[in-house]
Structures are given as C-alpha cells and as structure tokens.
Amino acid sequence: PDPLARARLTIWVPSTRTAEVLSHALLAAAGGGAVLPTIRPVVASTDLSDQLPLQQTTSVASNVLSPTRRLLVLAMLVHKAFPQLPYRQALQEAETLAAAYDKIREYNLSAAQIAAAVPADVAEHWRHHSGLLQVVLEFYPAWLGETNSTDPTDAKRADLRQWASTIPQQAAPHWAVGFADTTPSGRLLLQNILARSDGRLY
After folding, report:
1. How far apart are CA 65 and CA 44, in angstroms?
2. 65-81 confidence digits (pLDDT tens)
3. What's the CA angle centered on 64, arms 62 and 68, to 5 degrees?
4. CB within 8 Å of 33: residues ≥ 6 apart
C-alpha cells in the first residue's frame, strides 16, 4: 500500500514474537524509513484500552488486579491451601499457576477436561500436582467473586473480544498474517476480519 494507506492498516499476528519479526522485516524491506502499519499480536496480554471507548473498556476498571497483585493473591491462596510450603516456594508456584489460569480461561477448560487429557504415563505426576491446580480452578475464581475483583488477563481478553466485534464497522482495513491455529478469541477476530470486503488472511 501507499504510505498513507499503510499507516491506516492494522495487521494481526499470532504472537508478540511474530509482531517483532514482522516489524523488523517491513523496516528492512523499506530501507529503514518506512511508515509501518499497526501490528498487534492476538494474545490476551495485548493492551487495547486506548483503542476502545472508556465505557466499553474492561482492563482500566478500578477492580482489575495488577499483575503483581495477582501473583501475591495466588501465592497467598497456595500458602493457605498448602501451609507446609515456604512462602517463597508458594510465590514460585503462583507464577506457574498464573500461566495455567490464562490457558484454562482462554479455552474454558474444566477440571474434568484437563484430567481426561492427561496421558496415562504421567497420571501419577498429575495426581501429585492436581491439588495445586485446584487453586486456579476453584480458590482463585472464588476469591475474585468474593472481592468483586477482575483478573488482569481476563480483562484484557474481554477488551480483545470487544475490539474484535467492532472490526466489521471500522473504517481502516485489517489483515491477519501467519495464523495456523489460534484461540477462541483469535478465531472471533479472524472471522470479523474476513467479514470485511478489504479483510485479508495471509
């Protein structure tokens, strides 16, 4: 596209790493002085709060936890469930559980679905660690409800889905590049890109 059209274009890619690679490739192809399109990864950590009307934005609400606060809450819940663990180890477990929570929520998985997917050769390992997973399957969601709090990644995922729903009505074009598979939120976004006459999937 010409420079003005390129500046209006938004390109969605599967990951933050892909966004970096594509940005470097476009700059190199243009000799380093190009006006780049907006390149956004389809990940729940993408901040779209500045792209949505304030009343439609979830991630800037006052009840959304900061990532640090989320880790501390998870560590507290781990330590409460397993008081024999030193708090330092509980904090380490919390980091792993935070990543697990993001995947579980993105794909709307239940404990039964997760257990059914565990291969037989690691079933014993699973039984040993399933108690920890209960923190993000039960204890943490309950804590969020009791305190009227929102998980930060849940909030940004809600913003992503809200943003995706506006794509068919937006004036500027949207393309998607490099997708072999994606999350449910990503599929919604791709569907709305392809619903546009100028939408492209490469």
Report:
1. 15
2. 999 999 999 999 999 99
3. 120
4. none
